[in-house]
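The material for today's practical consists of a large collection of protein records. A record pairs a protein's sequence with a compact description of its fold. Instead of coordinates, the fold is spelled out as a row of discrete tokens. We will come back to this pairing of sequence and fold again and again. Here is such a record, shown just as it appears in the course material.
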Amino acid sequence: MPQLVLASSSPRRRELLDLVNVPYEARKQLVDESKMTCRSPRAYVHALAELKGRSVPFSVDNEVILSADTVVSFEGNVLGKPKNREQAFQMLSMLSGNIHDVYTGVMIRSSEQETIFVEKTSVEFWPLSKEDINDYLDTGDSYDKAGAYGIQSHGSILVKQIKGDYYNVVGLPLSRVIRSLRSYGIYPDLSQQEHKVTGNS
């Protein structure tokens, strides 16, 4: 049976795969993102997802490697993870009352085939006061997230609406990934998921 390898240290991507009961092994990848020169957000995540995916070698022949990278883009500029509170404040001030785009590049590869695609979701923020932004920054939720917010946690209160895949904003366009994995012989265990939901009701 094919074995899925998640080439990522992101806890959010692990949580998303766990959500639909896809068995996988997490394996760290080491790439130098500072050398990336792509200016287009779409090209950037495409190239970085591929770079991450190719940086992880196959341990056995039946492995399928999944890699991804997510960025926030506003007016064509890529917003990565903020280095400090001041930078996080600046990012959220830019996004306040505006629409921005979230791009995730995904690469899936086996020894016999590979798939690369980019998913885009548009996100609109409510107009935010300085107090709104500082209250959010006080939660500490900003610093390990592109664009300085997490839609799946405290940052949800900043978001007015989205157009596209919600999970793409979290860090992985889950539905499209699962459908793409079918051609590699990897499927979620939905019977186990149903059992969990039933058992917790």
User: Anything to note?
Assistant: The domain at 3-195 is CATH 3.90.950.10 (Maf protein).
